[in-house]
Write a sequence for this structure.
């Protein structure tokens, strides 16, 4: 899954680390939990620390958060790593902006967090984002031989985000081949796609074209995708200088990158 940049600025602490960097792994593991769930985790950590006559530690809370989630099989973790590596390599291929974090350790699955590095929002840029949205699914298909429902299922899934973007390209962004000057903001995207079959066909054509391009990229950059997936499988989360160093290695393994002016 590709997520937009929602990171908060780093706040220095007395130890030279940052509050944001220290707390982000805990927030990631607590994703989807209610306030009551988190309060129970903290209370259990305090009970454990009192029994052992010491203060509560970061490891206490982290281990309890990790233990509250169902264990993932090695096969599923590999699939998640391949999926997120596909997203990341597609972003690198199109130079879509900085990648901030890649993880397969979130409760809802993995994600690739990045920001947009270009200020000219052309049709070519949005088409590249369509490819990047679908590159996780394409990586599963090309490397594992099948795709799972991981690309869909929620309003923030890869398929949902790609469909929303393709629909906006056809209705409000001025990139439609039919009536490009007509602004038509859909109140309910699912309803308009269900009732306007011609529009649905144009939206799906964009998605199908992006999916084919994503598979072509993954096929060509297979070595880079597998290299990154193996590191993700071992590390689970990449961010900061470690992520930058790994992505530089990934770039070196990529071939036939587009030339940017």
């Amino acid at each position: 899954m590709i997520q937009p940049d929602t990171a908060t600025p780093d706040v220095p602490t007395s130890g030279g680390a940052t509050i944001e960097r220290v707390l982000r792994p805990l927030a990631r593991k607590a994703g989807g939990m209610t306030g009551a769930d988190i309060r129970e985790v903290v209370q259990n950590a305090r009970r454990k620390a009192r029994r052992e006559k010491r203060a509560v530690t970061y490891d206490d809370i982290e281990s309890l958060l990790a233990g509250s989630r169902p264990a993932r099989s090695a096969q599923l973790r590999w699939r998640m790593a391949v999926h997120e590596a596909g997203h990341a390599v597609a972003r690198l291929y199109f130079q879509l902006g900085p990648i901030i974090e890649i993880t397969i350790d979130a409760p809802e699955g993995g994600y690739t967090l990045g920001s947009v590095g270009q200020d000219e929002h052309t049709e070519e840029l949005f088409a590249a984002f369509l490819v990047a949205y679908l590159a996780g699914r394409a990586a599963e298909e090309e490397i594992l031989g099948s795709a799972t429902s991981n690309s869909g299922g929620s309003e923030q899934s890869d398929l949902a985000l790609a469909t929303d973007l393709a629909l906006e390209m056809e209705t409000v962004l001025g990139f439609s081949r039919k009536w490009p000057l007509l602004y038509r903001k859909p109140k309910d995207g699912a309803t308009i796609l269900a009732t306007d079959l011609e529009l649905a066909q144009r939206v799906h054509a964009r998605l199908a074209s992006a999916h084919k391009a994503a598979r072509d990229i993954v096929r060509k950059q297979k070595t880079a995708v597998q290299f990154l997936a193996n590191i993700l499988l071992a590390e689970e989360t990449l961010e900061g200088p470690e992520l930058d160093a790994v992505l530089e290695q990934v770039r070196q393994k990529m071939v036939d990158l587009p030339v940017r002016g």
